[in-house]
């Protein structure tokens, strides 16, 4: 009998060992005198009311272990575990393990938080899940755990921000994660000196070096499916309470050009979409600068037709090409900013009016050339092709650097700019990982293993 | 933080500098694009030349199809001087970046093209991919012609010469850098297309001859039919027609595949023979009698083509040999295959005037079209 009892205890110990470092694991012991019942569950996956009412309150109401035993086993959905693995699996599914003496029951108390979850706003996909993270850490954990049912998914809780004491959870797959990255992240979070942390990007800003960067080296995502994919690739996820975004790290340049559509679509289509995004990157970075270089320095590179066309349409424009470009691009930035801030009801009106005035009236008045309008439109559209908004903002700023270079040095300046941008990107590191290492995802996984 | 502030301050200063660029910053609308230029001799004064520039005026409305151009002429003692003198006649900066055609008037080309050719290759803003040509009767007349089909000023000549537009077997294509190379290299001579005009009726260009140059001056201008054969020897897969007579009937072949290779063979010391092997593939395009062709007749027809093309080619090669020019570069090939630095050039010089040709043509008629 004693060996049998120790078997149940062994199972429990094994279970707890598996759940080492899983921060949202809960183990509570209910006792009446000598008699004990133990509940083990993941608090992010289970409904606290069900657990409290059905399991905890009843225990004390019945006040007798045998009756409690009968009560628990009388539930139709309650099953007795066959082996350890089933036990662990059900635990990760959101069931409560009830240990009474040498019996272990699996009690279903799954918490489904569907109502408060809203659609993704900044990372849309065509086909695929539309749910996005909420402002509640526990809900977010629930969404991740539901998609990643493995005991290797560890969660470590911390509180950061001297005043805000924001709860965060560091999630990773224990077998796949790069331990060095994890260690560095913890160090940086420990050394974080900020009073209030309210959004994921603040953590991003406070922990990264160098502080002055144009391009993000951590990825912010609001999509649980992207998060889970990245977890399986060995990345670390930081979930923050009070914000709808999680941080994925380390992140390389290529990650910011990946949309979840790439995984959903057939491979050739996925590659095509990715190629389109990189072409978009080149277009949005270089088109305005090339316009300046071609019209002011190197018109001989253009075809005769285009050269004469540009010259003709610029005939009435009273200022040099770079003023024209910067003027139009600024107008476009105003429009973009306005449409973000405006209430949804008047947003489209403002953009239509702005677009109409900028597009048609400016050319009719002869203040801007026709070619310029096409160019600005192309730049604006291609900028939004980049799926991650942080990167898209960085690129938006970088193109002004190229315009400056083109204004001072022409085509040579653009070449200079391209070289220095590549050098700059190559010099960046994301938690020790080279930033410009293209197609590194698979390699990262292997290293993690 | 201090460094960042300094950086921002510097950036502000740089931005302000943009506003004071002044008139050194010349945009595309402050430039005049010269699209073609030409040079002619002046009849009563051998010391000066007449330079003609065709300037494209930018289009106001691209949809109107209206083209405007301006012809500027300047009589001057040198092209460099003429380019400066012409600047005081216009309001905007002259830009040679889009100059695609350079015409040498016939009388000038018969004297020497070297001065103008040198200038175009040497100058910084002229492109090496310009199309040079000999203009008949003179460059100014040809530059003044704007065919009705021309949609961009001066573009018709460039389109025809570059074969981007029409693809005629009578037009030979050459670039300025190639002419320069041919002038500098020994054992190879430059050739130029000849642009003429169609007399009477609407203004039109006619490019159907080739001028053979002895390094710098025109030695001979070949007739259109010879020009076609000349192209057959130099262009791979020339799209042309070929004609033959069989049993008193005319037959025309549409060539879509052609290739000419040659070998220089020294038959005995001081005497050489050039073996040409020409393979031609094509379809029958026209025949005089409307009877069906049998297979035997088709083979006979191929033979007839072989003979007539071989005869034409040999006649042309002898004609070119007798002008003393070497546009194919037989000499260069000879130097390359006869390794003797001391004697090879003299050997070739002695050998070329008496060299003979053996031409082997193989015509393959792949089809006879819709009917047999």
Explain what you see.
Chain A: This is Spore germination protein. The complex is a heterodimer of chains A (449) and B (372). With 449 residues, chain A is an alpha+beta fold. Chain A folds into three domains: 107 residues, no CATH class; 114 residues, no CATH class; 166 residues, no CATH class. Chain A is 52% helix and 14% strand. In chain A, the strands form three sheets. Chain A has a five-stranded antiparallel beta sheet, with helices on both faces. In chain A, strands 6-7-9-10-8 form a five-stranded antiparallel beta sheet, sandwiched between helices. In chain A, strand 9 and strand 10 form a beta hairpin. Chain B has two domains: 197 residues; 150 residues, 2-Layer Sandwich (GMP Synthetase, Chain A, domain 3). In chain B, the strands form two sheets. In chain B, strands 1, 2, 3, 4, 5, 6, 7, 8 and 9 form a nine-stranded mixed beta sheet that branches. Chain B has a four-stranded mixed beta sheet with strand order 10-11-12-13, sandwiched between helices. In chain B, helix 8 packs across helix 9. Chain B is of the alpha/beta class and 372 residues long. The interface between A and B is medium-sized, with 24 and 29 residues.
Keywords:
heterodimer, A: 449 residues, alpha+beta, 5-stranded antiparallel β-sheet, 12 strands, B: 372 residues, 2 domains, 9-stranded mixed β-sheet, 4-stranded mixed β-sheet, 11 helices, 33% strand, globular
SSE blueprint and pairings:
The complex is a heterodimer of chains A (449) and B (372).
Chain A (H helix, E strand, L loop, with lengths): L1 H17 L6 E8 L2 E8 L5 H15 L2 H9 L5 E2 L3 H10 L1 E6 L2 E6 L28 H11 L5 E8 L5 E8 L5 H12 L9 H8 L11 E3 L2 H9 L3 E5 L5 E4 L11 H4 L2 H30 L7 H10 L7 H21 L5 H18 L5 H14 L5 H21 L1 H17 L1 E2 L2 E2 L6 H8 L1
Antiparallel strand pairs in A: 1-2, 2-4, 3-5, 4-5, 6-7, 7-9, 8-10, 9-10, 11-12
Chain B lengths: L1 H17 L12 E11 L7 E9 L10 E9 L2 H9 L5 E3 L5 E5 H6 L2 H9 L8 E5 L3 H6 L10 H8 L13 H9 L6 E7 L7 E10 L2 E6 L1 H11 L5 E7 L2 E20 L2 E17 L7 H29 L6 H8 L6 H8 L4 E12 L5
Parallel strand pairs in B: 1-4, 1-5, 5-6, 6-7, 12-13
Antiparallel strand pairs in B: 1-2, 2-3, 7-8, 8-9, 10-11, 11-12
């Amino acid at each position: 009998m004693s060996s049998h009892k120790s078997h149940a205890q062994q199972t429990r110990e094994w279970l707890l060992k598996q759940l080492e470092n899983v921060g949202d694991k809960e183990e509570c012991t209910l006792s009446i005198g000598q008699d004990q019942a133990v509940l083990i569950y993941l608090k992010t996956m289970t409904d606290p009311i069900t657990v409290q009412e059905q399991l905890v309150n009843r225990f004390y109401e019945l006040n007798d272990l045998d009756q409690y035993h009968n009560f628990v086993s009388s539930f139709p959905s309650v099953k007795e575990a066959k082996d350890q693995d089933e036990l662990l699996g059900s635990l990760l599914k959101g069931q409560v393990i009830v240990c009474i003496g040498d019996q272990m029951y699996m009690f279903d108390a799954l918490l489904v938080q569907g109502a408060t979850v809203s659609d993704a706003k900044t990372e849309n996909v065509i086909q695929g899940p539309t749910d996005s993270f909420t402002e509640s850490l526990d809900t977010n954990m629930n969404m991740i755990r539901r998609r990643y049912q493995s005991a290797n998914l560890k969660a470590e809780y911390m509180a950061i921000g001297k005043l805000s004491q924001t709860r965060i959870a560091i999630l990773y797959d224990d077998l796949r994660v790069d331990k060095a990255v994890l260690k560095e992240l913890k160090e940086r979070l420990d050394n974080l000196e900020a009073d209030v942390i309210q959004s994921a990007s603040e953590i991003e800003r406070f922990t990264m070096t160098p502080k002055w960067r144009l391009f993000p080296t951590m990825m912010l995502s609001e999509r649980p499916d992207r998060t889970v994919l990245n977890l399986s690739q060995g990345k670390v996820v930081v979930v923050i309470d009070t914000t709808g975004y999680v941080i994925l790290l380390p992140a390389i340049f290529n990650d910011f050009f990946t949309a979840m559509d790439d995984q959903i679509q057939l491979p050739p289509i996925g590659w095509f979409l990715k190629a389109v995004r990189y072409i978009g990157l080149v277009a949005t970075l270089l088109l305005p600068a090339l316009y300046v270089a071609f019209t002011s320095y190197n018109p001989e590179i253009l075809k005769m037709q285009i050269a004469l066309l540009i010259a003709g349409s610029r005939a009435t424009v009273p200022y040099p090409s770079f003023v024209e470009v910067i003027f139009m691009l600024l107008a476009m930035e105003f429009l973009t900013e306005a449409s973000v801030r405006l209430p949804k009801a008047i947003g489209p009106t403002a953009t239509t009016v702005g677009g109409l005035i900028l597009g048609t009236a400016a050319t009719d008045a002869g203040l801007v050339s026709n070619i310029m309008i096409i160019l600005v439109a192309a730049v604006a559209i291609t900028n939004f092709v980049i799926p991650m908004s942080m990167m898209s903002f960085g690129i938006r700023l970088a193109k002004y650097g190229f315009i400056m270079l083109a204004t001072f040095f022409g085509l040579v300046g653009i070449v200079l700019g391209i070289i220095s941008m590549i050098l700059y990107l190559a010099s960046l590191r994301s938690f020790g990982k080279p930033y410009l290492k293209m197609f590194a995802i698979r390699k990262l996984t292997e290293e993690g293993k | 933080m201090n460094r960042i502030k300094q950086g921002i301050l510097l950036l502000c200063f740089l931005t302000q500098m943009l506003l004071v660029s002044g008139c050194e910053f010349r945009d595309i609308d402050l430039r005049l694009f010269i699209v073609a230029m030409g040079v002619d001799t002046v009849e009563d004064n051998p010391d000066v030349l007449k330079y003609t520039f065709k300037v494209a005026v930018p289009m106001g409305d691209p949809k109107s199809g209206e083209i405007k151009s301006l012809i500027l002429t300047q009589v001057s003692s040198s092209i460099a001087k003429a380019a400066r003198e012409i600047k005081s006649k216009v309001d905007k900066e002259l830009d040679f970046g889009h100059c695609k055609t350079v015409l040498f008037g016939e009388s000038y080309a018969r004297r020497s093209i070297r001065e103008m050719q040198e200038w175009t290759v040497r100058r910084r803003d002229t492109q090496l991919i310009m199309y040079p040509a000999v203009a008949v009767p003179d460059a100014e007349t040809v530059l003044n012609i704007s065919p009705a089909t021309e949609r961009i000023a001066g573009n018709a000549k460039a389109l025809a010469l570059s074969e981007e537009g029409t693809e005629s077997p009578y037009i030979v294509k050459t670039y300025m850098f190639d002419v320069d190379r041919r002038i500098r290299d020994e054992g190879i001579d430059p050739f130029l297309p000849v642009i003429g005009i169609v007399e009477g009726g609407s203004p039109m260009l006619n490019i159907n001859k080739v001028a053979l140059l002895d390094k710098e001056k025109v030695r001979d201008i070949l007739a259109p039919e010879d020009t076609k054969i000349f192209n057959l020897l130099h262009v791979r897969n020339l799209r042309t027609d070929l004609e033959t007579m069989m049993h008193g009937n005319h037959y025309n072949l549409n060539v879509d595949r052609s290739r000419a290779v040659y070998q220089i063979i020294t038959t005995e010391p001081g005497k050489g023979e050039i073996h040409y092997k020409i393979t031609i593939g094509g379809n029958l395009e026209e025949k005089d009698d409307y009877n069906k062709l049998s297979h035997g007749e088709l083979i006979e027809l191929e033979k007839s083509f072989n003979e007539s093309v071989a005869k034409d080619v040999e006649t042309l090669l002898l004609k070119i040999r007798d002008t003393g020019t070497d546009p194919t570069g037989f000499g260069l090939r000879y130097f390359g295959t006869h390794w003797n630095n001391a004697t090879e050039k003299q050997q070739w010089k002695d050998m070329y005037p008496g060299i003979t040709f053996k031409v082997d043509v193989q015509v393959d008629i792949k089809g006879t079209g819709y009917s047999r």
